[in-house]
Specification:
alpha+beta, three-stranded antiparallel sheet, 14 strands
Amino acid sequence: MRLINIDSLRDGMQAGQDLYDEHSRLMLGRGAIIKGHYVARLKTMGVPALYVQDADTSDIAAPETIPPAARAKAVQNLTNTFSAVTKSLEGLRQLSLEEAHQHVRSKRFIDTFKSTTGDQGIDQIVGDVDTLVNQIMNKEVVVGLNSIKTHDNYTFQHSIDVTIMGLLLARKIGWKKEQLMIFGIGCLLHDVGKIFIESEILNKPGRLSDTEFESMKSHPSLGYELVRTIAPNINTLVSHVAYQHHERQDGSGYPRGIVGNEELGKNESGTIHDFGAVAAVADIFDAMASDRPYRQGWPTDRVIGLIRDLSGSHLNPKIVDIFERTVAPYPVGTSIRIQTGAHTGCEGVIADIDDQQLDRPIVRLLFDTEGNRMDAVEIDLRDEEDLKIESIRSGTPELEPLGSSKTVVSVLDQAEVDQPAQPAQSSDIFCPECGYENKSKAKFCSECGTALPQPNTCFSCGQINKPTAKFCSECGIQLGKSI
């Protein structure tokens, strides 16, 4: 199994992992053969990437931190809770910030929420957190890639991934189950304040204006009020996860600009609570590593580097240290390129990871330096101390080094509203004779020896088109699509 961009998906490929729709229904099962209409449907849903497998990778399975059924149930319950809050706020998104705070505390809102949830409130979410806590109690590290998120389920999958990462870090800090439960409920609801934000702002594919960004920055305080209202009988610290997950150690965060003490366990008045500090690390990690409709997620090793750079200035250094010992920089299923040694330039996939040496995985090479498919070769980086690798992914934009602290803040604040990325260009060439997947540099099919079409050659009629052409000038077929 390996992860590829949706634009590289072709008829005949085999799904490498179960894929669920926004209603948690199984849409594609592992091993299913991809059909043309599947690709169109996945693109419509906003699925940015998909795990695929072949004979050389079918034994590589994406590690699941929690069972798919538990994730699906949590997504559904979180969706129901957000829907209940939304219904209780119907027609009130245009309120001023002060009016919104007042309404959330009103009897009308409370009564509507209770009626909508059948007086259950957030009981189902509490049950989901209990399940998540039990699932991570014996987990020490994260060796799999982030969940694949669609347009419709991003907020809910993001909330669950933040909760899982946050709970893993919190358990390694040494928190007991009662504390983990309180923190986990807060993580699941950390973005509930975004319900107040206009959808045009939330889904804007470009950079937010100053006014729009000020509106976006109101979601932590609104979330704080919402959580206090819908979970009145749960520890008050639950609401502080929503309130503080955008605060930063140096006071540059929002909504209050409070500072951290770079410690764990102090929790002094007027400073960032441990709950907020842990949630901040988990939130940044998932936001930066996740694909969005308008930009690809950063490779995991790059995100780890960013979080390391933010240690002390923006993020609690003690939590960052635990984070670096918890997350594998090259998760299973990641496509990589060898940078040094005899196999320099060869490409492959991460096949396995030793929990004790997260940065020295087992690599399975699949493509030679010319881009041709080769007999699979496994290299154990634990035995090759000088061998270096890098994450690769077709279409991933170049990542410029981060400069000043101001630049870092800008990157984080705009993480979900970057300019749309250019459509990812496939680096694969599919043989018109047998359908085998070859690398872009290959001139002949590695499977059957057939001469491969040149770039922008129409698979249907053989016409060679201009480099900028999207459709064949001879027959009108969309270029890059096999027949």
